[in-house]
Design a protein that fits this description.
58% of the residues lie in helices and 18% in strands. With 133 residues, it is of the alpha+beta class. It has one domain: Beta Polymerase, domain 2. Strands 3-2-1-4 form a four-stranded mixed β-sheet, with helices on both faces. Helix 1 runs antiparallel to helix 3 and helix 4 crosses helix 5.
């Protein structure tokens, strides 16, 4: 991803007061992308808007003007625990309006993921026991 693209994205994020933080994740963040790879962007909002679909489509349109059509946009406020964990662990922070809010989100998301992980481990243990019986 070009530095100019990152700077253009930051301007969009700065102009939108709802956006607290934004991450690049996926193959572009890991630098394992190939020609034609999509660009994965995740944004954290200060609160989930009532008109989330309209907000999402409007933001997707603004970002697509910069990055083109091969863009996946995730709203972290509504993302499942595993996806939040992957974004935080393997993604790259490209914008933060508030470090405090970002840190609180990341800590909360990690706790949510660990709770989810424990529950899934117990589920799989029970499932394996049932299969082996």
């Amino acid at each position: 991803m070009q530095k100019e693209d990152i700077e253009a994205l930051k301007r969009v994020f700065e102009d939108d007061e709802k956006i607290v933080a934004a991450y690049l994740f996926g193959s572009k963040a890991r630098e394992t992308d190939v020609k034609g790879s999509d660009i994965d962007i995740a944004v954290l909002l200060s609160s989930t808007p009532e008109d989330l679909l309209d907000y999402y489509l409007n933001l997707l349109n603004k970002l697509s003007e910069i990055l083109g059509d091969k863009l996946d946009l995730i709203i972290l406020n509504t993302a499942p625990p595993l996806l939040k964990h992957q974004v935080i662990k393997r993604g790259k922070l490209i914008y933060a309006r508030s470090e405090r809010s970002r840190i609180i989100f990341e800590a909360s998301a990690q706790c949510e993921y660990l709770d989810f992980k424990r529950a899934m481990e117990r589920y799989y243990e029970c499932l394996i026991k049932q299969i082996l019986l």
